[in-house]
Amino acid sequence: MNSNSLLGFALMGLIFEQPMSGYDLRKVFTTTAMGSFSDSPGAIYPALARLEANGMIHGTVEESASLRKRRVFQITHTGFEALKAWLFKPVTRDDIVRGIGNLMLRFAFMDRTVGEARTIEFLRGFADEIEAYLPGLYQFLEAHGNGMPLSSRLALECGIQEYEMRLRWVKASAAQYEERKRNQP
């Protein structure tokens, strides 16, 4: 099912890693970099309800010593298949230009979900797309940089440097996976 939102995939990824309540999920969003996806109960709880209504997750009420009951969610087979399909999507130019954070979210859930070989493939696609995009940025800077306001040129240079840094990180990450793969018995 591809109608899941980015928040929905983030929730399913976290729930796949370990069953969690809505409160547990909110804590993850408020205490980690995942807060950029949402830490609002006004978004998280309705997203959980939609995921459950669509058969992606299933919640069960846990009895506890406190008066409050905890509803703990687990991913269903349907949800796991949707999560895997999202993770298997190829990296595109649009992802590189507008969705680096989305790519990093996908990467964060790959190891346990789709395995090492697919993770390496993802990183290679990530590197390929950045390498294909950078020459156009260099050409634009070369052609227009001198005529740009200083702040605009510096902002463009910063963006280029961020892509260059991301490319180094992606290649180093792929190398770590390759090294680990070679050292496995």
Textual characterization of the structure:
This protein has helices at residues 6-17, 22-31, 41-53, 77-88, 93-98, 100-108, 110-144, 150-183; strands spanning 20-21, 57-62, 70-75. It has two domains: 6-88, Winged helix-like DNA-binding domain superfamily/Winged helix DNA-binding domain (Arc Repressor Mutant, subunit A); 93-183. The chain is globular. The longest helix is centred in the last third of the chain and has 35 residues, at 110-144. A hairpin with a 7-residue loop joins strand 2 and strand 3. It has a three-stranded antiparallel sheet. Helix 4 packs parallel to helix 7. It is mainly alpha-helical and 185 residues long. The two termini are 37 Å apart. The protein has eight helices and three strands; from the N terminus they run αβααββααααα.
Structure at a glance:
With 185 residues, this protein is mainly alpha-helical. 71% of the residues lie in helices and 8% in strands.
